[in-house]
Amino acid sequence: MSTLAELKKGQKAKVLAFNNDALKAKLIEMGFLPGEEIELSKTAPLGCPLAVNVAGYELSLRKDEAEAVIIDLVA
Amino acid sequence: MQNTHIKVALLGNPNAGKSSLFNALTGLNQKTGNYSGVTVDRYEGKTSFEQNNQKFIFSIVDLPGIYSLFPKSNDEEIACKTLLDEKENIDTVVVVVDATNLKRNLLLATQLIDLKFKTVVALNMIDEAESQNIKIDINGLQETLGVPVIPVDSRHRVGVSKLKEAIVNANVSGSFFYDLNADFISAYKTYREFIHRNLFNLKNDVEQSFENADKIYRFNTINYLMAKYVKSPAQLSRKKISSKIDAVTTHKIFGYAILLAVLFLVFQFIFYVSETPMSWIEQGFLQFGNFVSEHLPKGQLNDLLVNGVIAGVSGVVMFVPQIAFLFLFIGLLEDSGYMARASFIMDRIMRPFGLNGRSVIPLISGTACAVPSIMATRSISNVKERLITIFILPLISCSARLPVYTLLISVLYPDSKFLGIFNSKGVALFSLYLIGFAASLITAFFLKRFVKIKETSFFIMEMPVYRFPQWKSIGIMVYNKVKVFIGEAGKIILAISIVLWFLSSHGFGKEYENLQAQKEKLQTELVQDSLQLINVETELLEQSYIGKLGKVVEPAIKPLGFDWKIGIALITSFAAREVFVGTMATIYQSGSGENTEGIKEKILRERDENGNLRYTKAVCWSLLLFYAFAMQCMSTLAVVKRETKSWKWVLAQLFFMTALAYGSAFAAFQLLS
């Protein structure tokens, strides 16, 4: 099972589930719906935070927050 | 003509252009206030509209940005609670949605519609949506939502009067967007009741699952609406441009180089460019004080007005240029979208210290002055990281410490070289700045273990596309910041300066009265600046309450190598650190405080009771370190009180910094002597 934190720049994935309740509630309202396609747009020079394209806009989050998002890679 | 009052709540996602619409609606007709007990500013404004010979007066509350009616931070909680607070009497809700980012924005819009307020949707940034080739079927959207959808362009004030008209004729939507079969709705009669309970009662796990179910249900509907009413190109040209700029601004080398240049520019403005208007303010108040002093009858009242009130007000107004410049830059950086990138590349570097990517600007501007920098920590949304930033900011050497450093360093190293090539004065000054930075980061590092904040916070933020900043909106923001500072922190600063004035200009006992009479006699004889007058003034200060206090604290500061004379200077410079130099001048009878050379000579020759030199290396370094760390600044305390809404943080900071200053001064004195 992979998480959003493992995604490489330019890779796309589908949101499957979350492993943290507080982050789940926050991320859902930011557009991270189960089944939604997301794309890692960039990482900061030191590898954290990450920036993700989701629901038609770009959002940044820290790596440990990204670990709460369980994803399925889109080939 | 009949007047009708309408209370309007303005809501929307952060970055939807809510504040700019608020400014477009109300202009400078705004009032800033406080929500009780929290550090969220309350903005309320007025505007009006005429229709059919009737006048409608709107009072508009600009609520903090939210993503949904389930708050995730203090600000968001305030926004939701204020909306549902019966005392607020909200008639109509205007929900601002970003036309270029409709999907996420519609979540909140559908929730607000379900609360069954009279609602109007302001479809903002419509110009941008058009230029990006996003086609929105406004009529279709309007029919489904059941409320008017008004296209507006708040940046160019387009659609504002249409919006006002819609507010006047607003209605409650007949559409429902929540899941009518959901479990929660059988427990609560209406959606509003559910939200109300959720906000005002303690939350439990059952409701958390309702929350997610509610949002997922809504997004399913929204996906359908988006497919039906919105045609958007696969990739927006604006986003392409933004990501090209990002390739540079978040680059591992260019990104930091650009940030460094930006910080340098901000530093220049706050440090040097502010100097000119600050000296105008100082001179202006000085002239005004002299004028009042000459034209009012001599005596207590005159002295209170000139040396207490006018000097105190001058001390408050003096901060305005620095505050204005800092917030001008912050406004430009935020509005253009650059701030999100700066914190994106700095976050990882600041985090080990318990700080945040957004702590960088306040920390750099802290080298000029802690006061505006502490005000600037508002943009740090994580409460814990914001409090830590506020706590450590005053440890960074600010410009008010410079005169103190300069005087003492020139006593320490009148003329010498460090390692043969460097000027010792420069090396000493640089070390003091470095010590300040190191102390602040180390403190932050430890503080992050001790500070416990209940609120869970995230570093989840939108990376907005780059836009041209709006001067007008930034201008209004700067104006509001200055107003709030003068109104709130200003009161505390003025009060303390009057107390300090009283303590330094009053005393008790026969001796004091005699000296006072002598001084008045000399003054009426107009022997300005004569040696005699200076001598009397020195003695007066010694005999005043502050002079007595200096002697009282002498045993406490003796281990640091300080005598009662320094004690007096420590107390008076609580008003502001640079006062130290002026007080030393008075104590050492060198006349007007402007003449640093004069004081330096006196200090260099000063001997203690045993005939040894008073200002040894040990004493000077002890004093330097004391000033580097001590919270010798009432303005900072006043601003911390205003920004944390609690005296607890003010006292903790005062206590910690005093202890640190005392400890390091003690260590320096004992080691060097």
- Rg of chain B (CA only): 30 Å
**Rg of chain A, Cα atoms, Å:** 11 Å
| Poorly predicted regions of chain A | none
Q: How would you sum up the global shape of chain A?
A: globular
Alpha-carbon distance between the termini of chain A?
A: 15 Å
The DSSP helix count of chain B reads 30
What CATH architecture of the domain at 2-231 in chain B do you see?
Answer: 3-Layer(aba) Sandwich
Largest sheet of chain B: 8 strands, mixed
Give the amount of beta strand of chain A, in percent: 35-45%
CATH superfamily of chain A: Ferrous iron transport protein A (FeoA)
Mean pLDDT, all residues of chain B:
87
The level-1 CATH class of the domain at 2-231 in chain B: Alpha Beta
Count of beta strands of chain B: 13
Short description:
Chain A has 75 residues and is of the alpha+beta class. Chain A has 2 helices and 6 strands; from the N terminus they run E-E-H-E-E-E-H-E. Chain A is globular, with a radius of gyration of 11 Å.
Describe this structure in words.
The complex is a heterodimer of chains A (75) and B (673). Chain A is α+β, with helices and mostly antiparallel strands and 75 residues long. Chain A has one domain (2-73): Ferrous iron transport protein A (FeoA) (SH3 type barrels, Roll), CATH 2.30.30. Chain A has helices spanning 21-29, 63-66, and strands spanning 2-3, 12-18, 37-43, 50-54, 57-61, 69-73. Chain A is globular and about 30 Å long. In chain A, 49% of the residues are buried. By secondary structure, chain B is of the alpha/beta class. In chain B, helix 12 (275-295) packs antiparallel against helix 13, helix 19 (402-412) crosses helix 20 and helix 23 crosses helix 24. The model of chain B has no long low-confidence stretch (mean pLDDT 87). Classes of the chains: A alpha+beta (75), B alpha/beta (673). At the A-B interface, helix 1 and strand 5 of A face helix 3, helix 9, helix 10, helix 15 and strand 13 of B.
